[in-house]
Amino acid sequence: MQFHNKYFLLLLLLLIQFESLSQEVLLDTVFIEPDTTTKMVSIRIEINKTKLDTLNRVKLLGDAHADSEKSSMFISDWFYSDDYLDNEDNLYTFVFDSIPVHIEHFKRIEGKLRLFSPSKEKNSIVIVLGGIVNYNRNIIPSNPDSIKVIPINAIQLDKIKKRRKQFNSYVKKTISENQLNETLFLETLHRYFDDRSQYKLPKTIKDNIIFYIEYVDLRVVKITIEDHNTGRLSDISKLNGPNSAIWEISNFRSKFSDAFAIEVMLENKESLKDFDFDLLNVELK
After folding, report:
1. Can you tell me the distance from the alpha carbon of 136 to that of 175, in angstroms, rounded to the nearest whole number?
2. In angstroms, rounded to a whole number, what is the distance separating the alpha carbons of residues 57 and 233?
């Protein structure tokens, strides 16, 4: 589909409740579809006093809401929202899609942003040495009620998944040792099996680790494995649900050494700051 670009430059003051961040908003582009019945509005928020990088990141919490001059309510499209991407340009973007072309003005745009600033000191970057990692055991013991991360040897799991007795024994033991939600654990494993049912683990694979993640509201942001044999490997596939996830790291190089380390970057109260924004009188024409 082709779009015709129109560029609208508008500096607005972003009113926020978190005092140490001063910000401006640029209404950057409106895309109009060929039939001219709808348009896409992209709102870019520039963070001025906090440098966004691989550690300091921003995401939209929930949806942004816009009120038009016709008293219509529009909700931002989650599909276009960044989820803790490395915002090297120090901009955060969210999008309102399928806005009728006769809407020329938003009276107000409201929403909430979350600033994520993890560190080892805040216990939001956890490093576990491979030599002491126990597969099938939670590696985040400091906050087990909010989030659990269970590394699983995917090659071994693949071998037992069709052996009912072994698989049931494995599931029972893993649930018991980690106080997991049984229904959630089984449903998530089976969704993972279904997603990869079309292929087998390639014979060339050296190591394959999946991480079962169970959480209430705080989430894992990134998982990395570092090893002198293989370098630095990050999660390459994800299966996410409302309260559970499976992330996977596949290794096709030489096998991990005993010195490999797992680094987990996760949300916790110490690493998060939420703030509201309230934009007034945004012109779309």
Report:
1. 9
2. 20
